[in-house]
Amino acid sequence: MTRGVTGGRAGRAGGALAVLAALGLPAGACGTTPGTGPGTSPGTGTATGTATGTATGTATALQSGPAATPTPSAGSLVAGRYQPLWPFAEEKQARDWQESYRSGGHQPWHLDAERTALSFTQGFLGFTGVDQVVERTVTGADARVSVGVRGEGGGRPGIAAVVHLVRFGTGPDAPWEVVGTDDTTFSLTTPRYGALVSSPVKVGGTITGVDESIRVQVRSTGSARPLGESCCASAGGEDALWSATVTFQAAPGSTLTLVASTGGHVAEVERFAVTGVRVAP
Known about the structure:
The protein has 281 residues and is of the alpha+beta class. 13% of the residues lie in helices and 32% in strands.
């Protein structure tokens, strides 16, 4: 979640790699050419309109972004305020993608907020069952894409998370970057967004549900496997508190994605939330 900045926030490797392989895409391919879009922050950018829609088919995950190993530095913030979670670890990678896109049209999916959100969910987090775009809202350089699981009996898909994306860099072809998720009935509020953390890290929030089993993972752009994992915290009730402690290994200064997920009633993963933090020096 991107709590503390705005109201929004910013798997399993085997499933993700299988999806990528089915598409004929290299699992470690780098987004070294995607574009550049309006570099203004969501609060000051010029709105280009709002679009909403529902998906009727099953979406497939795209390849993950940069193949580089997690950078030891914090890198640049997105729009000067958000943690760069995926697919680019820093602005230089986004610029490299722009140059490649401009010269050869490589990986144009970086310019599509929906495809980026689904690729983050399925390819990076490994939640392959979350394969629907339920709705989207795009305003200037800011986008929120609701991803979900197929509804029972062909009904409307249930929303698993609202993925928050922001254009990374400058220019009309700036690529979309995932910076968090919006939290509703399932929140990840500890640690706070953008906090400095060390291992082990205590993770927590609130949840509304029955017989929930919460898995927590620590992930980083460029790593196919979780850097740490805790399973599973039992929770249930109305706005009930939940917490877990996760041990991980990561380079000081690197940006991490903390992921909490729950499911098991209708699908393996039915809801998830993420937040972005940095490893303390």
